[in-house]
Amino acid sequence: NPSSPPKPCPQQPRPLAMSPPLQAPDYRYVTEECLREWKGQSAAAFRLPDPVPMARFLYELCWAMVRGDLPPQKCRAALDSVVFVEEARQEESASVLADIIAHLGQDITISGEYRSRLVKMTKSLVESSLIVPRLLQERCEEEFLWEVELSKSKGQDLKAKEVRVNTRLLYQQTKFNLVREESEGYAKLVTLLCQVGSDLACQNASSATISIVKSLIGHFDLDPNRVFDIVLECFELYPDNSIFYQLIPLFPKSHAAQILGFKFQYYQQLDVNSPVPSGLFRIAALLVKSGLIDLDNLYAHLLPNDDEAFEHFGSFVSRKIDEATKIGKINLAATGKDLMDEEKQEITIDLYTALEMENDIIDERAPEIEKNQKLGLLLGFLSVHDWDHAQLLFERLAQLNPVEHVEICDALFRIVEKTISSAYSTYCQTHHKITRNMDTHMMDASSVSSPSYLVDLPKEFFQMLVACGPYLHRDTQLFQKVCRVLKVYHASSKESARTAGVMSPESQVEEALGSCLLPSLQLIPANPAVDMEIWGVLSLLPYEVRYRLYGEWEKDTEQNPIVLAARQTAKLDTRRLLKRLAKENLKQLGRMVAKLAHANPMTVLRTIVQQVEAYRDMINPVVDAFKYLTQLEYDILQYIVIERLAQGGREKVKDDGLNLSDWLQCLASFWGHLCKKHLSMELKCLFQYIVNQLKKGLGTELVVLEGTHSANGKCTVH
Hints:
Elements: H1 32-39, H2 54-67, H3 75-80, H4 90-105, H5 113-127, H6 133-139, H7 142-147, H8 155-171, H9 178-181, H10 183-198, H11 206-219, H12 224-237, H13 244-247, H14 253-266, H15 278-289, H16 295-299, H17 306-325, H18 336-344, H19 353-371, H20 373-383, H21 387-396, H22 406-439, H23 445-449, H24 459-468, H25 476-500, H26 506-521, H27 528-538, H28 543-555, H29 561-580, H30 586-599, H31 601-614, H32 619-625, H33 631-646, H34 662-677, H35 684-695
Helix pairs in contact: 2-4, 2-5, 10-11, 10-12, 12-14, 12-15, 15-20, 17-29, 19-29, 20-21, 20-22, 21-24, 22-24, 22-25, 24-26, 25-27, 26-27, 26-28, 29-30, 29-31, 30-31, 30-32, 31-33, 31-34, 32-34
Domain THO complex subunit 2 N-terminal: 54-236, 254-447, 461-591
Region (Disordered): 1-22
Pfam family, one: Thoc2
């Protein structure tokens, strides 16, 4: 049935006088007036006032002829009296008529005299050249073609002939006689390919080798598909020889994907216990990379099915998230003696709980990379440094978190390090030169802050960091290299953008920080050097951008069980330390608090601020313990304080309307003591928040300034 019609003509059509005895469409364009004019003497002068849709009009016109309301001879006059909405040619209208007739011919409700009119109408349309017979022969059933005399064979005979032809074309296989082919031809072929493949210096003999391979196929009547299979086997043994790239195009591209897919399907059989060899994944990646095979054609042969793998991994992640959520939960069934024993335990912190869970997950998922051929193909792309196709598989298999596998993660790290090798070498040379010149007093600090060299990073590098996610914590050296390269890239790109008058690509640096560096930081156990490196990148950004990254960092890691375990452990250890923190043990426990903050600053500092708001006595010990924090942690702490001030749902004034709430007084006192004790605090963003509140007519937060006015006399509010 044609698609739903557009709006009808302005003239509202009236229903036909007589109702048909069979199911007919609602007429919108073939009205009684139109039928009367077409059957009359003035049919040549009659015209419909408005254009009509071609498909709907032809459908109603055919039904009118089948019902006997319009003779088939008047069809030409009806077509001449209308203008179609579409700019249709005669070939298009003929194709639509053929589709309508094929549809009506299959309708079992059209029988008797209506069937006879349908046959007469079809013959008339063919005789008047409104339909090409070839279109009807393509689309109509065999019995109907026999009725309209467009087939010389009866319906059953034509159907049987069609089955025989399709069987011969699509299902009949060419049989090869192995005895007739003779194994001597295959032996000579294998010998030739192994000699050529092992001799890497014999690159000029490629044309001669191709000629010999063709001669062997013709002389010994070898099966080309089996020859191609042998070529792939030799290519797997010698993947570095480029002569195979010239041999493989001799065979059809579609056959190449099929034969390579059959190799993968062999290892999917139940009686085959050996995993797919890495060499097979490597040559598959090389063939896809060189364009000799399409990725989608090969992807269809790999197992397991994506939906099944995603469902299985989803249940696995849910179980691990439940385990991580239980960390730090209070046992309500514990007795008083158990609680006292827990209080007497020695104070310890465990920075490796999340890493232990990660090791358990890696061990549990280890067999997956052997069974999942798509992950193996992804590893093959990474091994041949084909990032374009590797990124496609990273996106398709994102729900499987492929970078969690150590093999894939290490291969991705190798590509990242290779990508930044040139930029990092430039950074090292220039950094050493600047350091040497500063030691000899030949360069001032202003020349160091604005480097004269330019570092360019490709967009693929930032895509790789997104793929790494929080797993860059596995290689802290690479982590620091990335931070240094991003720092000089931001400075050089900003300088080049200022010179060229275009916008600086800060969004790429922000994406790298938000998707990779900050999530990885909370999985690195207490490394202040890493904190300083990442602060070197963050300090180049305005505080608005930094605070936005902190907010996204806190929200986007709830679905990763490893990150969740790190947060839960940090929160639990922080509460245990705060319960015992006092002046007597300040030096020991203060360092432990700093270690926790180095590893997971957002969670630890937020927990401390929440405790300080509830307990005023904790302010002095906590402020003294914060002398071990880094500049990054001070910045995150100021973000948390501003967020707590701006958080809704809490009253800042008591019910009497005169006194401030206890939590606000504690927070203001804590911040004042902190700023007095640590003069390196940057207060610009806090002052800006208070100014914005004053503009709104809200001055309650001014209490925070009681202790901060003497913290940094150089701070000014604009």
